[in-house]
Task: structure prediction
Amino acid sequence: MYRTPRFPARPHLRLAAAAIAAVSLLAACGSSEADDADDAGGSPATTVAPAATEAMTDDDMTDDDMTDDDMTDDDMTEEEMTEDMADEEMTDEEMTDDMADHPATTEAMMDDTATTDEMTDEMADEMADEMALPAWQTVTLTDVDGATFTLDDFHGTPVFVENFATWCPNCREQLEATNAAAEQLGDQAVFIALSVETDLSADDVAEYAADHGFDSIRFAVMTPEALAAMVDGLGQSAANPPSTPKVVIDPMGHAGELQTGFESVDEIVAKVTGLG
Result:
């Protein structure tokens, strides 16, 4: 008769069975506790891990440390600014002390300033003198047509001025060349002939100009005051017609030197246009 063989007992199987039984028991207990909690209307308690609590505490401490550091930095910045202001005040005081300790240097600086002011005043005076025109350029004249003017009325245009006398043959010859130059230049220049015969009438001078065909020159008779101003500014030759005295005033109003002697048409044109 066949017999079922018996196997020897295996300890590790017994241990596994015991473990399974324990897990089943714990599961049963957990289910029971959950049911009790639901019946009581509560919720399961939440447990915070100790490691998380410690991390939060460390973060709070870090924030506090940062705030303290920032306040300390601000305090240091204010102290540095105060020290800088104190240093600047000391520097100002040192400069004042230096000036007090060296009065000679301070006086020298003041003298230099005074000298500079004086030089500036002198330069201003010189410029004013240069800008001030001589009387003969600003004295009022009346042409043969009855129009009044001054030799300073023609800024921007060169002016050729020639003194003459109706009785002077040299003057007539020079006026012929002057009239030809005036015709050549047209509006590029102004040509004026001033009679030194202060007692002549405007009609007498107008007749003289017409008789000789001097129609491109503006004629006028000088007053005694005008003639005196010209002699004072240009010299005695200005009142000597046979020397054919002439002067050119540039477009800026600056007068050249008085010239005497005969000048040709080309020489006059070159001188008036700045090429001579």
User: Anything to note?
Assistant: Residues 93-132 form one domain. Strands lie at 141-142, 148-149, 159-164, 190-195, 218-221, 246-249. The longest helix spans residues 50-101.
